[in-house]
Task: structure prediction
Amino acid sequence: MEIDPFIFRLSIFILSIFIGYYVVWSVTPSLHTPLMSVTNAISSVIIVGAIIAALSGSSESIFETSSIFGYLAIILAAVNIFGGFLVTQRMLQMYKKKKK
Amino acid sequence: MSANLSALFYLISGILFILALRGLSSPETSRQGNYFGIAGMAISIVVTFMSLGSFGPGFIYVIFFLVIGGSVGAFIAFKIPMTAMPELVAGFHSLVGLAAVFVAISAFLNPEAFNLGTFGNIKLASLIEMSLGAAIGAITFSGSIIAFLKLRGIMSGAPITFKGQHLINLILGLIIIFFIYYLCKSQASNIFWSIVLISFLVGVLLIIPIGGADMPVVISMLNSYSGWAAAGIGFTLENTALIITGALVGSSGAILSYIMCKGMNRSFFNVILGGWGAVDQTSSTAAKEQQPVKSGNADDAAFLMKNASSVIIVPGYGMAVAQAQHALREMVDVLKKNGVKVSYAIHPVAGRMPGHMNVLLAEANVPYDEVFELEEINNDFANCDVAYVIGANDVTNPVAKTDPQSPIYGMPVLDVEKSKSVLFVKRSLSPGYAGIDNDLFYRDNTLMLFADAKKMTEDIIKSL
Result:
């Protein structure tokens, strides 16, 4: 019997939770705020779904209901991607070591 | 681009995202980590375009909206003051949540585009995944909006509770589950819409009973939710990058929530059920109001600190409110010139979000190797001459160690009372967010400095 591809995705998902668990525990507490802003930015990779949704309409009707939701999602995710990565960058640049 | 090839690229994106988080294990590697994250995102977006193949007229609009959203995001990122980080993060979470809802709606209306079957005849597994994604996304959205309003001060930070609140939440939760089940049987779109609407309501109801001081937990929790929503959508779209990211973000937020709860010695459910500080404990405070308090002025504080050999600074939310971090750094500079050893002690739940104080101190050019976490520095208070408490309160309250009746009993606190003298900058004697009187105010070695944190610090600089 063939294995349902869903099982593979579930495996990836569960293994990623474990990776996340160990990686996040190793994050230094002083960087917890940048951690939140960067996780925010990367979770906006949901934009791939938004792009597919936006381009789902036929060429005659670019603005079907489903595409409109796609476009809206693109705007929201783009705010997050740029905002999230840039604000993280801005914060990380402020962390400096003692000048010797 | 073939589906297999793009799947491999999505995997690479996922790995880059893991490396982005890995980079945050130390400030030196963190900036590189952020670049990994950006690279992962760029790969994902480009691969998506490539796999769709056709660059029709819709493509122009996609780029157009991407640029609009991107500019808004970039503008916010550059303009936002560091003190507003908690509400910014809450705001961003709401956007992820809403984006997840929109993608789910779109997938529901036009399943062909995602290879999920046809409208009214969507694959069962996909239907469950997308409705879960939509529900969690909707809860994330409305919950984050409430968190945003509370953090921004537009809405009162006080917990809003009413009778039967938890029962209503439970019933609504069960209704959502039942509707998902029913949706799978009927494929009816009005059921789908109902799931989304009820989830919006649940998000609001979940967050309103949680008070201002518990916001670190709330933000972390919403961070986690946004991850699970993304993962749900990732399963629907059969996209590895999204599944990996969702899992990473989900566990990241969960761990942060755990750390925050531990910092307050409260269980997660205790925080979620809300209403801390609503407990009546006037009996114990009334008696203590009468105790004498020593209060001093900036000159006294300057004198004490100048003659000290070591000073530990304990910042809290009050420092963020007063924007006192820059003045504080200047004060420390002057002290260091006088040969005083200065370090900073950060409690895990100081401020309104995890790591809030660290970011503010970094903004004021405080080197991160002078800033210590609770466990690292707590033993040093015994050997320190002056503890300068600026805007913190509950996290220094010795009652947490001595009084089993106290609601904060068992919470790890900074042992400031062990230092030779304590300077406590505070506007009044009012209790902190937990609503409990701070025993520290009445100790012999405590000198209260009644003033705004920033103004007091500036005055101390003058008299130094």
Remarks:
- Chain A touches chain B through 83 residues (CB under 8 Å).
- Chain A has a mean pLDDT of 89.
- The two ends of chain A are 66 Å apart (CA to CA).
- Chain A is about 70% helix and 0% strand.
